[in-house]
Amino acid sequence: MPEPLPLQFYARSAVDLAPDLLGKRLVRELDGALLAGRIVEVEAYLGGEDAASHAFRGPTPRNRSMFGPPGRAYVYLIYGVHYCLNIVTGPEGDGQAVLIRALEPLAGVEVMRANRGRVAERDLTNGPGKLCQALGIDKRLDGHDLCLGVGLWLEDGPPPDGPICASSRVGVRGDDAALTRPWRYFIEDNPFVSRSPLNRACRPVISVLSDGISTSA
Questions:
Q1: Which alpha helices (DSSP H) does the chain contain, by range?
Q2: What pLDDT tens digit does each residue of the chain (217 aa) get?
Q3: 83/139 Cα distance (integer angstroms)
Q4: Sign for the pseudo-dihedral over CA of 205, 193, 128, 20
Q5: Distance of CA 125 to the CA centre of its chain
Q6: What predicted TM-score, i.e. pTM, was given to this entire model?
Q7: DSSP secondary-structure letter at 1?
Q8: Helix axis angle, 109-116 relative to 128-135, nearest 10°?
Q9: Alpha carbons 169 and 183: distance in angstroms, whole number
Q10: N or C end: fewer C-beta atoms under 10 angstroms in the chain?
Q11: Buried b / exposed e across 32-53, counting CB within 10 Å, b at 16+?
């Protein structure tokens, strides 16, 4: 039986963690059913040094969970309609997190389809709002401890079955650095990656340096 990923896995920079989340399983326990998806797309946000981050201007009632401890869920509502799931990372107090942008459905697909209104399987979880709707993730899970193995957690999974690519993040605001940082990571050619012209700008990831700058071929 797979075990939830331990606290140590999350206790590092969001930029270091983000590509390592690709291939991991996100598991949701919902009304007696187990739903699961393989993570295929993420974005890293670095808190106070990242103008695109919710944590850039410090803690607020909305983003309090983003400041840790690591291994918690940060769930917020966007446009008053869609929930988004983030994984809190780094030292407590830093405000670092990784947004889960897309999943490849693995288990509980019929429940996901019912939650999403009977859409095609490819469209069930190919976006941050879609995957939260499919898995029944909402504000009640904000601050949830992902290391407990109940309600919502992450498990290890097979390595990505394709190259990991980096691009700029989708729809961010902020300074020039925030707009251009290559902190969106996804599995190349995976059909469940969210639809975006940025998919065509794949830069294979070679390494992620400690200062958060991705090196690509």
A1: 7-10, 14-21, 109-116, 128-135, 176-180
A2: 679 999 999 999 999 999 999 999 999 999 999 999 999 999 999 988 898 998 898 999 999 999 989 999 999 998 878 999 999 999 999 999 999 999 999 999 999 999 998 789 999 999 999 999 999 999 999 999 999 999 999 999 999 988 999 999 998 887 888 888 999 999 998 999 997 655 555 677 754 333 344 433 2
A3: 7
A4: negative
A5: 12
A6: 0.91
A7: -
A8: 110
A9: 6
A10: N
A11: eeebbbbbbbbbbbbbeebbbb
Read off the tokens for 200: 């065509």
- From 69, 55, 75, 95, select the one nearest 7 (Cα to Cα): 69
Distance, in Å, from the CA atom of 109 to the CA atom of 3, rounded to the nearest integer, reads 22
d(CA 170, CA 187): 16
The first and second tokens of residue 18, run together, are: 């983000």
Q: Do the Cβ atoms of 203 and 166 come closer than 8 Å?
A: yes
Tokens 């896995």, located at residue = 9
Domains, in order of start, for the chain = 7-216 (3.10.300.10)
- Sequence-ordered list of residues with C-beta below 8 angstroms from that of 142, at least 6 positions apart, any chain: 65, 73, 74, 75, 76
pLDDT at 2: 79
* 71/92 Cα distance (integer angstroms): 10
Strand partners, 36: 27, 107
Diameter of the chain by CA atoms? 46
